[in-house]
Write a structure and sequence with these properties.
globular, 12 strands, about 0% helix
């Protein structure tokens, strides 16, 4: 939800039937580096799952038949280092993701997996973007991280069509 609580109000899974859940299939993601993990919450729309791995690679996975997951495309932002990545946002025909260690926000065409725009928002050497973007109307909300390394964190809105910054405000004035 918009509060980023990873909670769904859907009632299909409840206390009475959760014990009947079982693994239907798995899909291998990521590379061969140590310490890889998935921290992203996947998004599913019309039978396709969108998820990012620790490298910022975005995957579109066909999960329509419920028995297997087939990777349709993957978009690799070519980060040189591994870092946290907590997910993607969907806006119209775009999958919005971050290349966290590079401080980039990337829009990928949902059908083709091709990059539509790629914006670098780094304004400090120790700044990263690790949280999933949030799509609201025609804006994308993103935030800087790195306060534990002395970064003056901020929240910004980008134009969803172009990636151009609409506004930016610092968390501490």
């Amino acid at each position: 939800d918009f509060g980023a609580q990873r909670f769904s109000p859907l009632a299909a899974i409840n206390k009475a039937n959760v014990k009947n859940m079982k693994l239907l299939f798995t899909v291998a993601l990521g590379g061969s580096a140590g310490n890889e993990a998935l921290e992203a919450t996947p998004l599913v729309e019309d039978g396709f799952m969108y998820i990012s791995d620790h490298w910022g690679v975005v995957y579109k996975i066909d999960v329509r038949n419920g028995k297997a997951g087939r990777i349709v495309w993957k978009m690799d932002p070519s980060q040189e280092k591994l870092d946290r990545n907590r997910g993607v946002a969907l806006w119209n025909n775009l999958v919005i993701s971050v290349a966290s260690i590079d401080s980039r926000v990337i829009a990928t065409d949902k059908e083709t997996g091709k990059i539509v725009w790629d914006k670098n928002l780094r304004d400090s050497p120790d700044m990263f973007i690790t949280a999933a973007p949030l799509a609201l109307k025609d804006s994308l909300i993103v935030g800087a991280s790195g306060g534990d390394r002395g970064v003056r964190n901020w929240i910004a809105a980008l134009d969803a069509k172009t990636g151009n910054m609409l506004w930016k405000t610092h968390a501490i004035p």
